[in-house]
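For consistency, the fold was encoded as tokens, as this record shows:
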Amino acid sequence: MSFRSRIIPWPFKALAAGLLLCSCALDEGEAADCPECDNVTELLVGDKCVAIEEVAKCGPDGHSHGDACHCFSGQDPTEINGTMYCLQQGCAGADAGQDSEEDVDMQACEHLGDSAEAATAVETFEEFDQAHVDLDLLAEIALPADHEGFVHFPGMETTEYAVFVSTTGAVDAFLDADGESLDAQNMGSNTDCPDDFKEVWHVSVTNNTGSPLPQVIRFKAGSVASVKVVILKAS
């Protein structure tokens, strides 16, 4: 049995091409058109109008710091039916201009509403494995009064970690398990909640073992009685 390719007459080809162009134009037009939400019963989230009861307080373009709202694009919060919201300023892109560092800053601020996990720093490097702080949580670390303090966190992979610290000048250094200094930079305060996290350290960790390796934070002697810390993967 033989098969022959069918020759499609040019009018049908032109019609098919026209339909394809129309379809593409419609799709692009739909993507470009931003729906008008009433901002009473619904809010713009991404490129859709979403029922307001499904949008968190201070959303969709911000987050809460206790009772206050921090809006990412700088506008003042809007009160709707007794609740404050940060209204999205454009379609599917209110946060498109934020880079990964700003996203991590926001995540750290969100942990301020958590109950802090208590930890106590040890006084010598050799004991660091007895003082553990986990990732992705708010920890309050009690520091020695007259000695350096040491805690460790798990370096899960080769990447950069952001260490958010509530007090200026408390952190002295970052070390690996052998006591070698890690590459760490003080980036200044958290731009999203600068009063809560006065220092943000970016720490480069190398780990190709497939298992977590301890990364040690050394605190200065007698700096403060305690410090709050959040540690997140930054990249």
Notes: The helical segments are 10-32, 100-110. Residues 10-32 form the longest helix (23 residues). DSSP finds two helices and 15 strands in the chain. Residues 42-97 form one domain.
